[in-house]
Amino acid sequence: MRTAARASGTLLILSYHDFRGTPDVEALYARFSEAQALGGDVAKVAVMPRCEEDVLTLLAATIRARKTLDLPLISISMGAWGALTRMFGWVFGSSVTFAVGQGVSAPGQLPIEDLNAVLDVLRRSLAGR
Asked: Is 67 a catalytic residue?
């Protein structure tokens, strides 16, 4: 896959999804790290939080990966709790978020208009950090 991506000039996103739960920080960091070791251009981790602590677990792994790895990251929690990461994951090192245009493709996605409004407020609030 990597060879085909390189040959066509396409970036390769190596993605890990867990639709049942959220592994611990070490396991999530290992997934980010594995994507880099395998030659991915972007590392993506998407998990299903069962509680608010699970969201913090993903964000902690994202911060660690941002500080130690050399590739862009995408970190997303799904579902209701996960909507939080879609709004402010970028503050912790996630390079991309996902929103709903005309149809939902994953649980927890927000309508693009709502996400843009939240992002605008956060950007202004964090402008001086």
From this structure: no
For the segment 58-108, what is each residue's pLDDT rounded down to a tens digit? 999 999 999 999 999 999 999 889 889 988 899 999 999 888 887 767 767
Angle at CA of residue 21, ends 50 and 36, nearest 5°: 130
Tokens describing residue 46: 């998407």
pTM reported for the whole predicted model: 0.86
Q: Give the span between the Cα atoms of 1 and 4, in whole angstroms.
A: 5
Given 5, 16, 17, 33, which residue is catalytic?
A: 17
Element (H, E) at 34: helix 25-37
44 is catalytic: yes
Q: Which of 31, 44, 64, 86 is catalytic?
A: 44
